[in-house]
Specification:
This protein is an alpha+beta fold and 413 residues long. The chain folds into three domains: 102 residues, Immunoglobulin-like (Sandwich); 159 residues, Immunoglobulin-like (Sandwich), CATH 2.60.40; 89 residues. It has five helices and 25 strands. Strand 3 and strand 4 form a beta hairpin. It is elongated.
Length: 413
Amino acid sequence: MRRVTRAVLMLAAALVAAWPSAAAAQPDPRQMSGIPLPDPQLSPGTVTVRVVRGTLDNNVTNHPVEIRAGDIAETVMTDEEGRAEFIMLNAGETVIASTELDGERIESQPFAAPGAGGVRLMLVGAGDAGAADLPPEPGNVSFGADSRIVVELGEESLSIFYLLDIFNPLLVPVEPDHPVAFALPFGAQGATVLRESAASTRIDGPNVTMGGPFQPGLTPLRVAYVLPYVGPAAAVSQTLPADLDGLLMVVQKRGAMDLASDQIARRADMTPEGTDETYIFAAGPPVAAGTAITFEISGLPHHSQTPGFVTVALALAILGIGAWAAATPVAAEGTDRRRRLEQRREKRFAELVTLEQQHRSGKVGPTRYGNRRAELLSDLERIYADLDDALTPSTWPHPTQPATGRARSTSTA
């Protein structure tokens, strides 16, 4: 599966902040820590980094903040509002902002240095430096509002990424009553844990689990899988074990593709800067635990189903010919030849079925598929012709010479 582009995730994060329903679902600044947000009101090339400890009213002043682009780093101290301001000279260059706070290194997501307008972000530390050492308390967690579902296209399959953040709003570790666990949709294949996910993430077949306790703030849960589809549409239904603070989806779009769901409140088609792909960005209100997230993608690119129908028709024809041949009397000397032809026919038919299956799964390219399929069909046509020759009327009684015991001559007055 391809790695989700940084530009796509940056634009998704910006939409989270821009849409009121999503922004209102963010009760804690730690959910926005490290997320770069474009701000057209800033001077061109400006990046502002605000550092807070726990809550927005706890600014960290006179504290070093670093922005790194490759091997080049620049450090600026925060002002009385906890902000460090940088002027970027190389627009489009990938940079990362970071700081050390209470012994913890806090980093932003990678983002492109702005050209027109600026970028603002926060780096949020824990409110209590000793929170990790406190015993966990019973409590509930949710999936943070920055959690998102990303869908990219494969060869007659969807690559689906769950980029989820488990959110603990308390200042102490929380141990839920049961592990965070859910099953992937029916038909999911190749499920894997992404490297950005927390170490406690586990996958067993279609089942995803993550045990507690969960530290204050966000714990990343990142998994991906492949969902094959047949035809122009695919439907997905996913149930999560905890509340989702806001629905956010990013779907790669080609041609006339569309995304439909009753849970989507607003959407937009956009082409992120630095890419030549169009994506559907969609957002919706919070989703309660146990409520299925359902959506359908239509207009998907797909191969024609005609070859499959031809294969089925061919199978029926072979069965019919076999039954007719079995019921037809033939001369003893043609039996061995007919048996050999039938064996060749069955072998070629099995090869044709295997070829169709390999083509649908993407294991055989279109050129090789077309050439081999033409060869097999041509060979089968020759076999059918030979079978017809093996059953010609020359092996039956001639119509002018009635068989013994089968007909009597008649006379006309």
